[in-house]
Amino acid sequence: MxxxxxxxxxxxxxxxxxxxxxxxxxxxxxNLVTPSExxxxxxxxxxxxxxxxxxxxxxxxxxxxxxxxxxxTCHNPSLGWSDGLPKGLGHxxxxxxxxxxxxxxAGFGALQFWDGRAPSLEEQAKGPIQxxxxxxxxxxxxxxxxxxxxxxxxxxxxxxxxEGLTFDTIANAIASFERxxxxxxxxxxKWRSGDATAVNDSAKRGFDLFNSKAKCILCHQxxxxxxxxxxxxxxxxxxxxxxxxxxxxxxxxxxxxAFKTPTLRDITLSGPYMHNGMYNSLEEVVEHYDRGxxxxxxxxxxxxxxxxxxxxxxxxxxxxxTLTGDPITIxxxxxPQ
Length: 337
What we know:
Largest sheet: 2 strands, antiparallel
Strand order of the largest sheet: 1-2
CATH architecture of the largest domain: Orthogonal Bundle
CATH superfamily of the largest domain: Cytochrome c-like domain
Structural class: mainly alpha
Radius of gyration: 21 Å
């Protein structure tokens, strides 16, 4: 048996096991408290100086080739750190192929982007900057441009004294700032901490359904409500669109049409939903899962019709709404001139 075939075989076995265990499955729901901070890699230890510099860069449109697009264009704090569009808009206002994912709690994820092509936030930060369809900036040109701004040169020399201003340190600073974007103190968190009145009875019933009949827990696990995995959930694409998702970067059959499980933290703020932005409401999302998806080709074994009642669907949505935390307050920085 070839290596790829073995991987596919054991992937199916593992998924099947989860399905068999689904009835009454509760998982380890004790691990639902969000850590106070995101752990940074040893190659890029977080510092206050990096966070401050990364914040400036995140909001600076001069990181793009047109000097019009910043990271915050597609990851707007006022729009759930996304852009409120089904699919993002990039260089020259061209429509992009996928929905702009929120960066809320992105630091807790392993692989980044809908298809997991970036292994870290540092690599994720580099991706859109140099993508022709997104920010359309040449990394070498970007470094030259920023080095013409004395305040940036000084900030990079102080923040990265051994490296200074490079494309790597630009990405390291942005990633450090992004690791501070964490959802905290939601009604759900308060309820789990002992406040029985923090959520209503409908949400409590929804949480029970989430962990049992609705089978959400198969993919949305732990404090971040994501398994960091990739699943084909049977989404329709626009006519003429073929998006193979994770399969493009890891050609295993079960991953064809599979996309990353998003966090459910602050989920009410980051619609439209799904990698193609096809659903505008959580109610539509629940309906999708209740009917077992639409496109049955290469469908994940986790997906099957649920048979939820109208009341159960409302309870599920009520629960998901309790996962929105306190507002993440951001003071937009004054950029170096």
